Fold this protein.
Amino acid sequence: MPKQDVDLAELWPQTLHALEHEGALLVVAGKDGKANPMTIGWGTIGNIWGRRVFVVLVRPSRFTYGLMEEAGDFTVNVLPAERAGDANLCGTRSGRDCDKLRECGLTAAPSRRVRSPILEEAIIHYECRVVFRNDVTPDVLAPEIRSRCYPGGDFHRIYFGEVLSVYAEPDARQRASGP
């Protein structure tokens, strides 16, 4: 089924639900072109510097971190509700140790505007070009967030991706697990 362009905010309720529950898949390809999906539960969209952005967080200890530093772009992909187990696997296994695409039966497909691929089986896609990155600053982070989210001190790098393209399956609203 051909995917259709949508407005950045049109399917945000479904994307936010995925982030809060099973997770969305951040996909990035390193210099070797090999794609790696990583489940993310934290992210947001907005308007910064007059650009629409998708903000994602990646810890330096993650395999994806090195790929993000190499690539300069990424995609965020929302799987249909029936693929929640794949999101779980991609959030609990490392690309250092396995080929998560193969293990989940997911297919990396060319994106429309960035080098990193989308996942063919996903129902919503955001293609993003990194325009800024910055590290979480522990000393200015609210103490309750610091103690709850960073007990081991593995603070995230925050990536601001200018959204270059958003598209989805025509029935994405019905196939997503949320609103």
Remarks:
- The CA atoms of residues 143 and 149 lie 10 Å apart.
- Strands lie at 4-5, 24-29, 35-40, 43-48, 51-58, 73-78, 108-109, 118-119, 124-135, 157-168.
- The two ends are 22 Å apart (CA to CA).
